[in-house]
Amino acid sequence: MITLNKAQTKFLRKYSHNLKPLFQMGKLGLTDVFIEQVENAIEKRELIKFVILQNSDEDLDDVANKIADEIGGVIIQTIGSTAILYRPSSKEKHQEISQQVNRLS
């Protein structure tokens, strides 16, 4: 499990402010395919945003917690219908954000 201090979380919230949501969850809800897509994207980007649409019956906090547990990430923020997740990449060429986060520890 990843633990972040306050400065690291603040940095990631600020960094994610201009990010566009990569995924939208609709009426199908949380599926294995959705989790797999999030895992593939977070491996390359380290920080992602996703939105739950109004036609979904899912609860944002529950979904964000399930996804974070499945992918081994951490929830940076949930606000409205948007969640921001972070996980350092295992590949060095994709570790741009995590290197900046590590400097703040």
UniProtKB/TrEMBL annotation:
The lineage's top-level taxon is Bacteria
The family database entries (InterPro entries) matched by this protein are listed as: RNA-binding_CRM, RNA-binding_domain, RNA-binding_YhbY, YhbY-like_sf
Matches recorded under Pfam families: CRS1_YhbY
Spell out the molecular function terms from Gene Ontology: RNA binding
Annotated keywords: RNA-binding
User: SUPFAM superfamilies, per this entry?
Assistant: YhbY-like
* Keyword RNA-binding on entry: yes
Is RNA-binding a UniProt keyword of this protein? yes
The CRM domain is annotated at 2-98
Q: What name is this protein filed under?
A: Ribosome assembly RNA-binding protein YhbY
Q: What is the lineage of its organism?
A: Bacteria, Bacillati, Bacillota, Bacilli, Lactobacillales
Q: Which gene encodes it?
A: yhbY
